[in-house]
Amino acid sequence: MLLTKQRSLILNIVKNMDGHLSADEIYILARNSMPGIALATVYNNLNALYAAGEIGKVKIPDSADLYDRSPILHDHIICSKCKGVKDVRIPDFLGQLKESIGEEIDSYDLTINYTCQKCRKTSC
Amino acid sequence: MLLTKQRSLILNIVKNMDGHLSADEIYILARNSMPGIALATVYNNLNALYAAGEIGKVKIPDSADLYDRSPILHDHIICSKCKGVKDVRIPDFLGQLKESIGEEIDSYDLTINYTCQKCRKTSC
DNA sequence: TTTTAGATTTAGAATTATTCTAAATCTTAT
DNA sequence: ATAAGATTTAGAATAATTCTAAATCTAAAA
Predict the structure, then answer these.
(1) Going from the N-terminus, what domains does chain B have, and what CATH number goes with each?
(2) How confident is the model at residue B36 (pLDDT cuts 50, 70, 90)?
(3) Strand D proximal to A65 Cβ, under 7 A
């Protein structure tokens, strides 16, 4: 995998962002440093970096995928009102799944819907 | 909620299908009995029946939603090769989630990726 | 240093699932 | 019979992502 200037810019953005951003949001940030960059390049590189295990990716039902600075397996809770995403770690979740299903599991996609503290109080 | 002939046809198809079908597949079946039915009507009714708790819906990442004859909460494993979906029941999964996260959870979306027995043998 | 093969980038078109729109039609209760 | 509201229809619109093909870049070989 070549480390082009587009790719290293995108890696840099993802590694330094806090929270979780979509390809489109990363594209907007990338254009600040490199105005001519194409959206397709952002997608290409996010895919390549994810495939190479450099970054994480979160599938949000009915919404754009989000990218995560950490490639380490963990889970996500998303607020149904404000759509804010938080990382959560469920101890040995994969082990629990395998045990209760009795099949060898490759991977899983999980998003947990809740209402965050702020939204519960202020009704956003 | 009115029970129109379109709606009862669609309910009937879903309740009698085995396995899981997409809106488009249900549309094709519906046209056998009612050739003029619109795809939008199939979507409208699947949404209405799901909202009314009559049927289930499964979100498949990067693919069309599937509908499920049962509205009762359960989980799904999907074969990465043949894309076949099977129901699984993980005992008190919601309880486990709540406990390990320490938040009140509204709902969750989970799909588990595996390779089914057939595909493991025959490489499909 | 030139060549070359392969990887990457770009712009824009294409794809796919689903929702939206607005007009027509149907239902149910009056 | 009528009116209000729900549903249906066809087709346009939307949104996220991938695809295409040509141009450009990179790294390594000659």
Answers:
(1) 5-68 (1.10.10.10), 75-122 (3.30.1490.190)
(2) very high
(3) yes
